[in-house]
Amino acid sequence: MPTLSTLRTLTLALAITINRAQATVVVPYVSYIGPSPIGIPNEFVRNPVNESEGMYQGRIGVHLAIGTPPQHVWVPPHFYSSETYVKSVSLCDNYTIANPGGQIEYCESEYSGLFAANESSTFERSSERSFGVDAVSVFDAVPDLQNDEFRFGVQTTKDPNYVGENWGTLGLGPNSTFLNTFFPGKEQVGIYYTGGNSTHGKPAHSIPPRPLVIYELEFDGYNQSHYTGEKFTQPIGPPSTLSNSSNPFTLNVTNISIGQDGILGGAGSFIATVDLSGRTSTIFPSSVYDLFIAATGAEITNGMPSYNFSSLPTNPAEFFNLTLTFSDGFRDFSVSLPQDILITHFPGLPENPDFAMANILNADDPMVMRSWPVRGPVIALNQLMFTSYIGIDHSAGEWWLAKAVHPWDEPAPASTNNTPPEPKENTAAGGIGDNLKKAMVTASALAAAVILLC
């Protein structure tokens, strides 16, 4: 009988049950920010970017190949929407070099890939407005996922769809078309943070950049080797009264600590919407935001806490580690975020190479209120995923958090012959891998850029 540690090393992660082992279908959620053709092969890009001219190519989400011949789009998952939407190539019809931003490649990058229905010989228009049916395959899924009659929407206007995203949408909510197509009768999704190292072979983040696997979506059964301990279960819905979206995922924040000092007790508890899109900042109520600023001595730059990196604490006992505690009224569940993940260093700024920024926003900041689709406090997915595995079960009407089991959590092997053990590859002090740091820096920088550019 294989041990749990052995099972963690398998290319296909296994979910262990009492009576049998069940394979989990894994779909990577990838991010790519950088110049093409590095990272994204040109055949995946409708308008390949000339790297020598400094053009920009960005992709984020689940990679779908749709139509005949295949057209490649990247769509972020949404767990409160049930339909899949892709962006139509017609959105860039009038995007010429005379327009701000330059050439059509920039336009396509903005939408993370485009779909032209009239270029697919297998596309069939649906009787429903803007919907159609076509062949689809989920790129890099293990095992393969493909279907010849996948129903999805094609957005042809510049107005955002009802989810409020500029990118496409992979709907994984109740009665999800995707789930009903590939996993009929199974409305369960697991979300696992990889730290840039996929369990099924995607390359780690590197310089020059390659596509970075931020998360993996797990279907057809939760991967029980990726979490341990008791589940902290919450009901799905109704939407938060502070939210203008239909996001039904909320947590009651009862305590917040910076390092060893608490800045929020139970009397100051608040309800926060949990954004599972994977690209948000954590947003505190203004009173809590002010406490965070005071506790870390931050200055405010473009609405975000900023620091001189060289002046940040170096003593682990004094780190600005952030701990969030949630309560369901009966028990607590805590999520901890180390300082070197919470506060991102931006050494590439020539005017200020020591510049660092915390990915924390003020819910009452006018810019945040104008640009963010969710109103009020928000807990970002990357905060939860650093220490937590997330399970969503639409059939049971609940979702849950459990302690994640990540490669950087595993203890170093015992030494032999009185020889100190060799450090684990890509592991830094405290057990946080270098690839993990790079992954979180990328994710934090992306989230900051989204807010600052909105």
Task: Please give a structural write-up.
Keywords: Signal. Residues 1-23 form the signal peptide. Residues 411-431 are annotated as: Disordered. By secondary structure, the protein is α+β, with helices and mostly antiparallel strands. The protein has 2 domains: 4-187, Beta Barrel (Cathepsin D, subunit A, domain 1), CATH 2.40.70; 224-453, Acid Proteases (Cathepsin D, subunit A, domain 1), CATH 2.40.70.10. It contains 8 helices and 28 strands. It has helices spanning 4-8, 104-110, 177-182, 286-296, 339-342, 366-371, 381-385, 434-453, and strands at residues 14-16, 21-23, 25-34, 57-66, 71-75, 77-78, 85-87, 124-125, 131-138, 145-155, 170-171, 188-193, 212-219, 227-235, 250-258, 261-264, 270-275, 282-284, 299-301, 304-308, 322-327, 332-337, 343-345, 355-358, 360-362, 378-380, 388-393, 398-404. Strands 3, 4, 5, 7, 8, 9, 10, 12, 13, 14, 27 and 28 form a 12-stranded mixed β-sheet that branches. Strands 15, 16, 17, 21, 22 and 26 form a 6-stranded mixed β-sheet that branches. Strands 19-20-24-23 form a 4-stranded antiparallel β-sheet. A hairpin with a 4-residue loop joins strand 4 and strand 5 (71-75). It is globular, with a radius of gyration of 22 Å. Residues 1-22, 160-164 and 415-454 have low confidence and may be disordered.
